[in-house]
Design brief:
There is one protein chain. About 20% of the residues lie in helices and about 40% in strands. It is an alpha+beta fold. The protein has a 5-stranded mixed β-sheet with strand order 2-9-8-4-6. β8 and β9 form a beta hairpin. The chain is flat and about 120 Å long.
Length: about 325
């Protein structure tokens, strides 16, 4: 068999190189040792205990009781990893501060689920209504927060106020305050009246927020077609389920900036002209003073004095003879 020609050797070399590059492209890349290829999802969970499987567990802890009572529940911590897991438990928020755990630190073996008892004690002076908080589970690298909702028995008071209403250009600013002990979902109606009639009339609509007891929130209401020249009064009316209701108002005067400045300059110019004319007329009535040196010039002019002829008497003759 004759040896391959130089042209054939070059063709085989190119084909081998292309085949090697294709194999490298199809081979999976090894995972980075420092985890730069991506962060693996957490291999543990914490959620309220209950249900046959984790997917059926409750989304949050919900408890009901009267002031002074202790309410019981459990928290499930599931370790899906291959090593033991240690987590610390604590409460956060208003209702979270009322929670105590059977153990603040829990170690869960690999591929195991542990349920930790917890007790929530409602303070004796707690106001009836709704309270919220969280249970926080922390393994040192990541924390999971489980919501806690508490309904405190007793008479419920729904009270809502609208305060600090201000009008600034095309924006209406106001604040809502929950003065009661129940969770509120406010509704707002806006009306603005000017000198010649109604300028704005927005019917009552729900606001995208839940107002917890004692909470204050500041909001704005856009008014893009606010008048350029008018005196307006804006009225806000807020309501909420349970009979909560309140109203507040504010007034503002809209004046165009450029015409106002121009009118002020015209007025000042007119006053200046009037003052200047009155001053000139006053000087004309009094007469202009003589220029200095006029009297001295008159003294230097030659004068002719005419004396009357007097007849000489005897004494004059005697003096002449002597």
């Amino acid at each position: 068999m004759s040896p391959p020609t130089p042209r054939l050797r070059r063709a085989l070399l190119v084909l081998t190189t292309a085949l090697a590059g294709l194999l490298c492209a199809l081979a999976p890349l090894p995972a980075a040792a420092d985890g730069s290829a991506g962060t693996a999802p957490a291999d543990w969970t914490a959620r309220p205990a209950g249900g046959g499987a984790d997917r059926d567990a409750r989304p949050y802890v919900y408890l009901e009781g009267t002031p002074g009572t202790a309410l019981q529940d459990r928290l499930a911590v599931t370790n899906s990893g291959r090593a033991p897991l240690t987590v610390r438990l604590r409460g956060d928020g208003r209702a979270g501060a009322w929670i105590g755990f059977a153990a603040d630190t829990v170690t869960v073996p690999a591929r195991t689920r542990a349920e930790v008892p917890l007790a929530l004690t409602v303070p004796p002076d707690a106001v009836p209504g709704d309270a919220s908080g969280e249970v926080v589970a922390d393994d040192g690298d990541e924390e999971i927060r489980v919501p806690v909702r508490v309904r405190i028995g007793g008479p419920t008071l729904a009270a809502l106020t609208v305060e600090d209403v201000e009008i600034s250009g095309g924006t209406i600013r106001y604040a809502l305050v929950n003065r009661g002990n129940a969770m509120l979902e406010p509704r707002l109606a806006v009306r603005a009246d000017g000198v010649f009639g109604t300028l704005l009339d927005r019917p009552e609509r729900p606001l995208p927020l839940e107002l917890a007891p004692g909470r204050r929130v500041e909001r704005t209401e856009p008014w893009p077609d606010a008048p350029a020249l008018d005196a307006v009064t804006v009225r806000l009316r807020v309501t909420a389920p349970g009979g909560a209701r309140d109203e507040a108002e504010a007034s503002a005067t809209y004046i165009p900036v450029a015409p106002a400045v121009g009118g002020g300059l015209l007025v000042l110019g007119g006053l200046a002209l009037l003052g200047s004319g009155a001053y000139r007329r006053r000087r004309t009535r009094r007469g202009a003073p003589e220029p200095p040196g006029a009297e001295a010039a008159d003294d230097r002019q030659p004068t002719t004095e005419t004396r009357p002829l007097v007849k000489a008497g005897p004494l004059a003759k005697a003096g002449a003879e002597s």
